[in-house]
Amino acid sequence: MLVLIIGASILIVGIAYAGVSGSKHDFSIGGTSGFQADTETEVCIFCHTPHGASDVPLWNKTTNSTGYTMYNSTVSSTLDATVPTAPTGVSLLCMSCHDGVSAINVVVNYGPNGPISMPAASDQLGDLSYPPSRNPNLTKDLSNDHPVSFIFDTNLITLDAAGGPAQLKLPVAPLKLFVGKLECATCHDPHEEGKSTGTTPFLRMSNAGSDMCLTCHIK
């Protein structure tokens, strides 16, 4: 049984590595994301560490939950979900790079080569400019982004329907909830950019015809 578990773990890690390598989340010297290390060859180290992690899933970055402005009921009067004052769970992990000011090359545990060096002008997502439709620099102002880190259950659907026809339904695979919450990773798979499947940027499914949106929203 132990052999089977270890074998399955290696297979999962291998699949994840294959998806990240060469993607926008590959910050190693061999990557092409625009944020490349000067010498670091490891791909997974920028997010994960096998020992002494700061959080699950073996997270290799420190997180900071202060200073956020969230999309909540003060932004939208039609939002019935209770949104926390900062991202939680996997969304907060995403923001350890996507806040635009956290250094990509600063991790909890470095590899055998020591600290990771990057060109000073490209070690934060806020260092570069992007098209408005594909801007990974979310900053800590999330009031103009889809709400995250809220409990998404039948109670929310009932509450949403109280003012009129039901507008929501629970997501189904390949979308997923995390501990019952909608998070960044509900719609995005950080290990699969989607270049070969037409699901960029890191979408869990195609949004052609708003298909992904309509998985939860009844329109």
Describe this protein's structure.
- There is one protein chain.
- This protein has five helices and four strands; from the N terminus they run αβαββαβαα.
- It is globular, with a radius of gyration of 19 Å.
- The chain is mainly alpha-helical.
- The N terminus is likely disordered.
- Helix content is 21%, strand content 4%.
Proportion of helical residues: 10-25%
How is the main sheet built? 2 strands, parallel
Count of extended strands? 4
Provide the low-confidence segments as ranges. Answer: 1-15
Mean pLDDT: 89
Provide the succession of SSEs.
Answer: HEHEEHEHH
Structural class: mainly alpha
Give the CA-based shape: globular
Q: What strand order characterises the main sheet?
A: 1-2
Distance between the termini: 47 Å
